[in-house]
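Here's what a typical entry looks like (NhaP-type Na+ H+ and K+ H+ antiporter):
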Amino acid sequence: MHLVEAILFLVSLVIVSNVLSHYIVSIPVSLIQTALGVGVALIFHLQINLATDWFMLLFIAPLLFNDGRHFPKRELWKLRGPIIGNAIFLVFATILIGGLFMHWLVPAMPLSAGFALAAIIAPTDPIAVQSLAKRVHLPDEVLHLVSGESLINDASGLIGFKYGIAATVTGAFALGDAIGDFFYIAIVGAIAGAVLMIAINFARQWLLQQGINDVILHTILQIMTPFLIYLLVDEGLNASGVIAVVVAGLLNNSQRNRYIAALPELRIVTERTWDIVVYVLNGIIFLILGIELPLATGAIIRTQAVNTWQAFGYALAVYIVVLTLRVAWGYAYMWWQWMRKNTQKRPAIRTALLTGISGVRGAITLVGVLAVPALLDSGDAFPERDLMLFIAAIVVVLSLVVAVVSLPLITKIWSPLQLRGSAIEQSALNDEDTDDDQADVRLLTEDQAKIFVYQTAVRRLESERRETNQKPVLDLMGEYQALIRRIELDRDTSDTIPPLIQDELVLRRVGIRGELIALDGLKKDGQIDAVRYKKTLRALERRLKELNILEDHYGQPTLHLMANRLQLQTRHLATELFKGRTQSRYQDRLFVEKELAKSGLKAISAFLKKPENRAHQYNRQVIYSLIVQYRNRIASVKDLSQHKSQQYEREVQRLRAIAFAAERTAIHDLAEQGYLTPRMAQKLNQGVNFTENAAELTEG
């Protein structure tokens, strides 16, 4: 397959996988991508020829650099000793024990290749560890330790992998030389990464001083930074480009890096660009894993030395050994901490088990094993390469499956496991207001602050509502209501239908039944023709059916519902396009729409006034949102009949400015009263600025 076609095809599959992940929320998107890759390989017999020499550069450099950018530096420095110990000694213990075990398990696999495979299986996904923090309250020191270890062990695992592969390819290995080389490439790599990052930061500041403050230019320069550093250190100095990009990432957003403050919008643009890069690269890696898995399985079957079930048994045994090592190491560390601090609460094996299971394998493992060369220096095939790929792939999949299945059972919390490259925002990784800031019980979380700010904007817009601007005010209020609803739904991690959705479904049914009563009344009074009556009746019955489907699927829209909504929107568009040809029928439709909206609003109001329904205490946000939607329908009918599009646009721009000002005032008031940290207030203000800039671009 040609390079451009392959890239376009893989990126398309990444998009499809992330769409599917919104409907299959309990399964990590990485597993969905792997399954898609397997399906494509089996159905279309797709093969991708991998050039292993650039594979590490293309994937390792940006992923590790981005991890370093997001890691909290204070915790890393505070626990530098234990983190480095875990990242080095635990990885080396995994390499030694895992390598010997694999060589014993598969004698045909050289010991050096077994060490290489164990080394590349050792690194864990740092985002999965952060996701664990949302599920269970780990001790802060343990959480920061495993998080920091997951960042550094990528580098130590890749170095061990590189030596194991080199020893297998060349057939030569000297322990003394290897130890000396290790310290050289590690120390020189770290120093070179720091020096180059400082030099690049200095270059950025110099460009700003010269008046070169193009945000796009600076964003591209930052995206290119890990590739440049990796190439210069790995190729130029023969040191560890992996360690260099990790160190560079840690220094990239240091407090002394003041050029970011000079370009407030640069932070937003850069973060979103990095999200896209990681999103695409991580997705492509797991797709390639799925595509390569059937090929590796077929190669194993053709050798006749190992059957598929035997190979799967090998992978399962390797995963159990590696998991046991992590659990034992974590439990020993907690005991050591307990004896050193002499606290009353004794270490729990459950916590150690959670830290072990959360250490899922991810993109780094896959990138490494896919980069194993096909041939030795002698020209012979690399021994057991297909089996190595199969074992590594199954270990990655097993670690994901075990985490997805067992963590909810252990923690009793059914929220999706996040991994590197998940579509979910990773803002938690950027927040360094951790221990000290969270101790103040007055502080609001980011979600709580956003809801308050949005509600303030809604109230300000409501105060601006007049008879002449009903439509623009209600449209903007609807946008804010949708934002609040999305936040409240994201905060709900239960495995049942959220109470907010339950209340909304009940009230929507009440409103639709009120519309049906009004529709029958229009028919009896002869105010609607038979054709319009039947079409409207079918539409209302379809909406009731959709509500039942939503209830059956825990409030999640199905593909069938989305197709129905698309069809309905197409019909509305066609009506708008041809309204001039059938003006009388168009006016009749507007009249019916207005009368139904009025009746639906009255039905909900009457329902909520009943004593038994008052006692239920329906969600006020849901009630207000539905009232706004019905009012908006009424206002939309008036607006369509008066054709005031230019006046509407001008009023929307004026009201948006008022709403943004209300948001900034609310953020300022919360910060002044001690409900927000300075960093959180700055982050919220940046979000307002970004939304305002986006609105100006859209409206301009």
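The chain has a mean pLDDT of 77.

More examples are in the samples folder.
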